[in-house]
Amino acid sequence: MDWKNSQIDALLEGALAEDKAAGDTTTSLTIDSGLRATASIVARQEMVVCGLGAVPRFLEIFARLDRRAPAQTHFEVVSHPEIFDGVRVHDGQLLAVIRHNARALLSCERVILNLMQHLSGIATLTRKFVDAIDRTGTRILDTRKTVPGLRTLEKYAVLCGGGTNHRLDLASGILIKNNHISLGGGVPTVLSRALEYRQAGQRVQVEARSAQELEEALAFGAEAILLDNMTPEQVRQSVERIRQFTASKAGSAISIEASGGMNLDTVRAYAETGVDFISVGALTHSAKAADISMRIAAETD
Question: Which of 12, 90, 131, 164 is the most exposed, having the fewest neighbouring CB atoms within 10 Å of its CB?
Answer without folding.
Answer: 90
